[in-house]
Amino acid sequence: MKAEYLLRDYSQHPLYRTLHRFWHPVAYSGEVTDKPVRVTLLDQHVVLARLDGTLVALADRCAHRGAALSNGAIVDGRLECPYHGWRYDSQGHCVKIPACDSLTAVMKPTVPAFPVSESAGIVWVCLDAEPKFPVPEFPEFDDPAYRLVRGPAYDWETSAPRRLENFVDFSHFAFVHDGSIGSRSRPEVDTVEPWRADHVLRFERAALKEPSVGRKRALLGIEGEDWISVANSYHVTMPHTVHLRRTFENGKHYVLLMAACPISATQTRSFWWIARDFGTEPEHDDFFLAFEAEVLEQDKPVIESQQPKLVPIVGDEVRLELPVRGADAVTQAYRRWLIELVRDEQNTAAVRAA
Length: 354
Known about the structure:
Layout: H1 14-18, E1 24-28, E2 37-41, E3 44-51, E4 54-59, E5 73-75, E6 78-80, E7 87-88, E8 94-96, H2 104-107, E9 116-119, E10 122-125, E11 147-156, H3 160-167, H4 173-176, E12 195-197, E13 200-211, H5 214-220, E14 227-237, E15 241-248, E16 253-262, E17 268-276, H6 285-304, H7 329-353
Antiparallel strand pairs: 1-10, 2-3, 3-4, 5-6, 6-7, 7-8, 9-10, 11-17, 12-13, 13-14, 14-15, 15-16, 16-17
InterPro entries: Cholesterol_7-desaturase, Rieske_2Fe-2S, Rieske_2Fe-2S_sf, VanA_C_cat
Protein name: Aromatic ring-hydroxylating dioxygenase subunit alpha
GO molecular function, one term: dioxygenase activity
């Protein structure tokens, strides 16, 4: 097959269009304070703002002359455009045209307003008026037994589905993460059986041995050999959020939440949290952040090298990759669900057009 995918325009790709129907993370809640903030979701510039205590997400383009509202200010509970002072309410309705305010009610200017929500310290936006699934859950976020650490958001030159698949790909641990969370001496992968629970793809990995990291072992209070036994429980909220709960042999837990934002079809920003119920003193935070940063730096060049950037699940692209029975069970289950979502969206679009 020719490599047209190397320079492909994904804007009309069925999967990329389908992603408009879902909640996506766009910022940490703490980043949206008393000033408007620009984010980009699926190539759409969006401005986030808190207007009289209400979080809003509007298209970042004034209806007058197209200036970015994110460069403006919040004035009297309204979002003011920096160019001519037009002001917008939480619904995107223009409520003031300073140059000729009597025309405000006549012209009735508006900018698109998008569904927005806050959960797990993250701002979520959907570009469709009716999100298909609920916002992902992070039960440990409000659990006082856990120490929470917010990881710095990071950008990769890849698609959000590729980022998600990387997180739940077990067979790369032995080679990309040899010595940290995997070992070349143990490349075999157990077969897991994913299942669906509402809008979540779930799967469990029974207790496995992985390399011990000295300080982590000490904080866990585990003594003994150079390997630690840990069971892993995964919840993948479609399409790009994964909650991983790791249970160690002494019953302690280490939890990761990773939510991937498709800035574009080929650029992804990931937001993430760590939650742990051991070594909960703040002075240990940097150790855990550094460990995860090392894992991410090992993954990044490999994932950014993948072609095509968007997972090949439609048309002739499917033939570009060869899945391995058993080892790729999770990825195959994930892709089957993506294909179903694409078909559902295509059917919905056909009904709307009829």
